[in-house]
Amino acid sequence: MNKFNFLFFFLTIVCDLFGQQTQTDSYTRYELLSPETQSFRIIYDVSATSSGADYYWNTLRKGSEHKIHEVIDLYSGKLLKWQIVDGSEAIKNGLKNASEEDEYLQIKLARVIPKDGQSRIRIDKTYLDTASYFIEEGTIVFSRTLGIERNSVVLPENYELVECNYPSQVQLTEQGQVKISFMNSGPQAVPLLIKARKLSPGKRITPPKGNAYKFDGSGSGRNSSKIRAGWTFEERAFQNRDIVYFLQQPETHSFKLYHDYTETAIGMDRYINVVRAGSKASNPSAVLLDTGENLTVEELKGREIIDRGIDLGDEFSEETEVVAIWFDPVKEGESKRLRITETYTDPNRYDIYDGQLVWDRSFGRNRNTVILPPGWFLTSNSIPAVIDLDGNGLIRLKYVNDRPDNIDVFITAQRR
Asked: Of 385, 406, 382, which Cα lies nearest the Cα of 396?
């Protein structure tokens, strides 16, 4: 077993022993329906990760009347079979830590979860919950404790946001409804409180128009002397890309990493990773997490890139290097989740200075993790992170960037 998957494997074994299912990449979208209904639609994306499992259980919250619309396998786009069961039935079918007092949405997965893989599903349901969604003095209130790390709430048509107690992005949907979204970087559930009021009769929210300004994510900044006219940014919480860096001893200037990525574009059959200038990539590999299939990987440079039919536009030069991952084209309704593993060597971003390990690298993704090498302890960290020990007892820093731009992470460490 490679080092990257050790922690995942260890946690899976422990959870299996106690009858607990494991999961990752959870995202919830709450769509508030007409206030008088006190109901909201929930679209919940989750990746089940318990190797060998063929069921997934979603706990149905007490105090809510629930209606299940459908459950979709995100890899194939096909509907899954489900039923609502009590705790005793869930225990009988494999969820050993289920509470006999709770109800569960029991989902039959499309395939057994592969070793070190995932089964990605989308649950579509509606809750009627008078304690969470109500009207107070003419203002609608959505008050709910949310344990999922990535969430969004969409207001009813022609309602304006007047209060939100947790730092959040605010956007307009294509239909012109206000959407509030956030990423929870802390260890506790968020007691979210949102208040909104209806606009004046006849007043309607204008949906967003074109995107005249584009943020390129290069870390080079922007022309701050001009407004970003027409800028429509992506919802940061919905972005489903994360990366883990395993720093090797700093004398090597090398770090192993894996990054997870979901492809949804119809017809797409490749993932192209352009190696940063000053870096050298080696030992690349990739797996389709949905099936456990190992994918074809190529390291290409200069004219080799063009010969393989890869168009990089202005990014191309004779010195350009890419790692190309090939897979069967994505069909309509499908998506594919890739895990790409490789080693980078970059003395410009990872070095020793005055006897200290120095890591100085720009992160563009919303979720990033850095693990220090054996024998080193943390002495400084510029960007706030959650810090703990990984399964091998190494210092781990987890960054959640809920902003739409890059963060420049600077870390130093000393030998024990």
From this structure: 385
- 3 state DSSP class of 58: strand
CA pair distance 97, 50, nearest whole angstrom: 14
Contacts from 185-188 at CB under 8 Å and sequence distance 24+?
185/149, 185/384, 185/386, 185/400, 185/402, 186/386, 187/386
Cα 58 to Cα 60: distance, rounded to the nearest angstrom: 6
The one-character DSSP state at 87 is H
How far, in Å, are 180, 202, 349 from residue 154 at the CA level?
6, 21, 40
The predicted model scores a pTM of 0.89
Domains of the chain are: 22-38+130-202 (2.60.220), 40-128 (2.60.40), 242-415 (2.60.40)
Q: Which residues pair with 160 in a beta bridge?
A: 197
Q: pLDDT digit string (tens) for 305-339?
A: 999 999 888 888 888 999 999 999 999 999 999 99
Tell me: pLDDT of 219 over 90: no
Distance CA 308, CA 316 (A): 13
Interval 20-61: pLDDT, tens: 799 999 999 999 999 999 999 999 999 999 999 999 999 998
- Whether the predicted pLDDT of 8 surpasses 70: no
| pLDDT value of position 304 | 93
Residue 20: how many other CB atoms lie within 10 Å: 16
Both tokens of 230, joined, read: 């027409």
Tokens of 268: 């797409």
DSSP code of 79?
Answer: B
Instruction: Round to whole Å and give the CA distance between 372 and 114.
Output: 29
- pLDDT reported for residue 275: 87
Section 5-27 average pLDDT: 60
**DSSP 8-state assignment for residue 391:** T
DSSP states along 304-364: HHHHTT---GGG--TT-EEEEEE-PPPPTT--EEEEEEEEEE-TTTEEEETTEEEEEEEE-
**Under 8 Å CB-to-CB from 373, ≥6 apart: which residues?**
246, 247, 248, 249, 250, 357, 394
The answer to which of 58-62, 103-107, 204-208 has the lowest mean pLDDT is 204-208
- The answer to whether residues 347 and 361 touch, using CB atoms and an 8 Å cutoff, is no
Q: Answer whether 357's CB lies under 8 Å from 414's CB.
A: yes
355 Rama sector, left if φ>0, alpha if ψ -120 to 50, beta otherwise: left
Helices (H), 36-132: 87-92
Decide if pLDDT at 15 tops 50. no
